[in-house]
Amino acid sequence: MSDCVFCRIVAGTAPATKVHEDDTLCAFLDIRPIARGHTLVVPKTHAAELDELDPELGAHLFRAGHRLALAMRRGALAADGANLVLNDGRAAFQTVPHIHLHVIPRKHGDRLAFAKGFLLRRPHDPVGTAAAITEGLAALDRPNLDSEGTAS
Ligand code: 5GP
Ligand code: ZN
Description:
Residues 5-113 form the HIT domain. This protein has helices at 5-11, 55-74, 111-120, 126-141, and strands at 18-21, 25-29, 39-43, 81-85, 101-106.
């Protein structure tokens, strides 16, 4: 849909800092992040709300969000947790009518910083932030080595 900003990001005709992409979904940094690393995962096929989304694609979207949350723990963002949130419909405060899963990294004791981020919504070094997430994703693909170098 040419009048949908997330479709334009998927198509590469609107700018965004992408952190992951496959045949059916795309993940990019939120332009007004609540916290550094705040990422949106969107299906490549336009679906405004959950009732238009193929459930298998919805499951794939969540799997990608799950993996991004783990990557945020592993990489330089050093998250301790994450909020995974999907606002379905205007009644639920959805503002962009193309389904998206928010993945927002959290740290222990970040309540004040999170509240401030919620109010200010300022971007944080998108290039460095994206690199921290893609490094975390790459780390998930590497085997864990114990102190003797044995893979687990
Ligand atoms: P919602 O309230 O619909 O769940 O969240 C929409 C999110 O999309 C917001 O967090 C907002 O900052 C983000 N957003 C809106 N327009 C753009 C855009 O053009 N590019 C990016 N990267 N994010 C956007
Ligand atoms: Zn769209």
